[in-house]
Sequence to fold (427 residues):
Amino acid sequence: MNVQTSPEVLIIGGGPAGATAAAILAEHGHEVLVLEREKFPRYHIGESLIPFTYHPLERLGLIPRLRASAFQKKYSVVFVQPDGRASQPFYFFTRYDRDTVAQTWQVLRSEFDLMLLNHARERGAAVCEQTTVTDLLREDGRVVGVRARHADGSIAEYRAPLTLDCSGKDSFAAVRQGWRVRDPYLNKVAVWTYYEGSKRETGLDEGQTTVAFVPEKGWFWHIPLHGDRVSVGVVAEGKYLTRGGVKDPRAIFEREIHQNLWIRDHLATGRQVGPYYVTSEYTHHARYCYAPGLLLVGDAFCFLDPVFSSGLMLALKSGVLAGDTVHEALVARDFSPERFAAYGTTMRQGIENMRKLVYAFYNPTFSFKAVIDKYPEAAGDITDCLSGDVNKDLSGLWAKIREFVPLPEELPLGGPMESVLPEPVPA
Fold:
């Protein structure tokens, strides 16, 4: 077996969280190795950026590159009833500076993720693609590295003081440690595809994200991309989507188009391209953010229902915060759990705020309009949360919304593990 050494940090996964953490750490001058299972560019869903991705992208120095890109500009989100009635757009510039935070993008993930990973390389991180991490290496109750398999089948061990799990929804470490906790209510299924030549809005609204409702609190996303392509998918309970015994993704999708007149009208002028995709959108959380030698970042720490497109923002934000936190730990040579407590607290606060809004959204009796009609001042906090400004005191908003629908209590999860890492749960 080939034994390699990464002097300071190993990162499992080169997606947005891993690439961001790698770039930050490399910028600090640390030696970083990213082990990525696939060969980039690769396909990935989740194309919509929300305004508060601006800050991590600015920290990375990528705003000029995004402004010069072909990515579709996005200024708002709109909600559409099944009969085609659309809300007024939630324009982000009613709350934020139009030239910075309020203007974001709809991105093709194969291009966007490659941009992030190449940026990490430019900053000095080493990236090894087509390398599958198979095991965590442990000594005396702490993670000391990983075992990985390369494309040619060879096995290598990589050792480092700290390993960051940025493996995305696969949640490499959380699954193997038995840390993954399913959210009791957010357990949807998504079916999606792409269209070309379909109807688009004009001017400022061309790039808006549309959330279009179907019965039983299901919804379509409609995300205009560059190159005259639209990402469009339906999310709902599995029992709703497969009613009548229909299980074929294409049949499900084509039936649901007719459940929303706006979606039907907009797609009628276009043609469907590429495959139909299906996946579970089960929200899950990790019991811990950190155990000796191991830090969880991005979707590997928490995956939240995609209705408000918070995934990329949370991934980028956690990547920056993880990079800075790990840098401080490396400089101090202090990897005690307490050093990672603030990271876990910050990420959980943002996740819990967004989670409350998602819970409200899925309640059959809830509407943003009803809350705003009674409490006009709530519109600002709602727009903030939809925009990703989630690390703030929103208790006043939740008190107002609880007059309309119940909201979940915060989950007592996400802090660092204070003891040594136990042996993994058998598969």
Q: What stands out?
A: The mean pLDDT is 94. The chain has 13 helices and 21 strands.
